[in-house]
Amino acid sequence: MTHTEAQELDLAEQERLVRKGFWPKLRRLAARLPFAEQALTAYYCAFDRQTPHTVRLTLLGALVYFVVPFDAVADFLPLFGLADDAGVLSAALLAVGSHITDSHRHAAQDALGRLKAEQS
To answer: What does the alpha-carbon distance between residue 2 and residue 70 come to, in Å, rounded to a whole number?
Structure first.
């Protein structure tokens, strides 16, 4: 699924895909995913009902791209597989950065700490 295809999904379908695939993928990759905290921050902002609709759509589109196994560069390729996911997520966060709150960041940091503790 390309980023454009992900953006064309309606909000409910994007939410369903992200809720289903985000945590399993993040649990699998958290220890070695350099952008895990950013992914978590995007997740918490996207599912915050106070976040404006267009911001939620932007973040959910990037998170769907992260979650789906078929994107521009296969995730299993060492070093390169997640680079496109990081790029899409970074671009989305840059676009909507003013809507990221301290509570989103703190929730992301707490969740990452728990994930890393689980993996120890």
So the answer is: 8
